[in-house]
Description:
This protein has one helix at about 10-60. It is built from one helix and no strands. The chain starts with 9 loop residues before the first helix and ends in a 5-residue tail after the last helix.
Amino acid sequence: MLDLDMGRYALFVWPAWGASxxxxxxxxxxxxxxxxxxxxxxxxxTDADETARSQAAQRAAGQEQ
Length: 65
């Protein structure tokens, strides 16, 4: 079924597989961390925009605090 014996090439093949796996894991982790940062930044900007709109509406209605 699975033949994992690499013979004389094993000293090259297995470390190459390991390095590839580490790089893929690192890239996935980096993407997840960046995604969380982008979501926080979007939420911050959305909250700031809502606050600015609320204040502009109050000024337009003559109800400035």
